[in-house]
Design goal:
The protein is mostly beta strands. It is 5% helix and 38% strand. Strand 2 and strand 3 form a beta hairpin.
Length: 76
């Protein structure tokens, strides 16, 4: 997992091209793992922070529309 801070209100681009905004960061009730809650196309979605900040290289995937290296990259 990449060592990055995820701030509320920050915008991130998914490698398939969509931009999402972080709404909240919550903890899983049983594992206490942090879950990122983000808005995507007017719906709220949750993803474990370990997946959101995964260091898996997705640059070679056929469905990668942005050419970015990681699943989510912060938009500055």
């Amino acid at each position: 997992m990449r060592d990055l801070k995820v701030a509320l209100g920050s915008k991130w681009q998914h490698f398939k091209g969509d931009v999402v905004m972080v709404e909240s960061i919550v903890k899983h009730t049983e594992t206490l793992e942090e879950i990122i809650i983000y808005e995507h196309k007017d719906q709220l979605w949750g993803r474990p922070i370990s997946s959101f900040l995964s260091d898996e290289d997705v640059s070679k995937r056929e469905d990668n529309k942005t050419g970015q290296k990681y699943r989510f990259e912060q938009i500055i």
